[in-house]
Amino acid sequence: MQTLPKERRYETLSYLPPLSDAQITRQIEYTLKQGFYPAIEFNEDSDPAIHYWTLWKLPLFNARTPQEVLSEVQACRSSYPGSFIRVVAFDNIKQCQVQSFIVHKPNSARY
């Protein structure tokens, strides 16, 4: 058994190595197949105890493919390259957030 190195942990899946583009796409596919509504949030710091995340546009209620979500992630990344960016998913039945994971960490992020 191996102990994980001491570093800052982020959202869901943070104990794994950084997700590849293909893995991010599969997570978004899962989100859409479950009927959840994806949204994109960003912040200069990833510590949720201190900072609130800012919503990038409105949640993507009409998104049907992962590419639609990823294009918004790219637009957010272009506008805020020094920010952490995450994809969150909302369940409209339970009226709550059910998933979130980091899709972009700035180069200057300290772990």
TrEMBL record:
Matches recorded under SUPFAM superfamilies: RuBisCO, small subunit
Keywords: Bacterial microcompartment, Calvin cycle, Carbon dioxide fixation, Carboxysome, Lyase, Photorespiration, Photosynthesis
Molecular function terms, GO-annotated: ribulose-bisphosphate carboxylase activity
Protein name: Ribulose bisphosphate carboxylase small subunit
ATP-binding listed as a keyword: no
Organism: Pseudanabaena biceps PCC 7429
Annotated coiled-coil segments of the chain: none
Record's subcellular location: Bacterial microcompartment; Carboxysome
Subunit structure: Heterohexadecamer of 8 large and 8 small subunits.
Any GO BP: reductive pentose-phosphate cycle
Function: RuBisCO catalyzes two reactions: the carboxylation of D-ribulose 1,5-bisphosphate, the primary event in carbon dioxide fixation, as well as the oxidative fragmentation of the pentose substrate in the photorespiration process. Both reactions occur simultaneously and in competition at the same active site. Although the small subunit is not catalytic it is essential for maximal activity.
Annotated Ribulose bisphosphate carboxylase small subunit domain residues: 9-106
Family annotation (SMART domains): RuBisCO_small
InterPro entries the UniProt entry points to: RuBisCO_ssu (IPR024681), RuBisCO_ssu_dom (IPR000894), RuBisCO_ssu_sf (IPR036385)
Further remark: The basic functional RuBisCO is composed of a large chain homodimer in a 'head-to-tail' conformation. In form I RuBisCO this homodimer is arranged in a barrel-like tetramer with the small subunits forming a tetrameric 'cap' on each end of the 'barrel'.
Keyword Lyase listed: yes
Gene Ontology terms: cellular component: carboxysome
The organism's taxonomic lineage, starting at the top: Bacteria, Bacillati, Cyanobacteriota, Cyanophyceae, Pseudanabaenales
Family, similarity comment: Belongs to the RuBisCO small chain family.
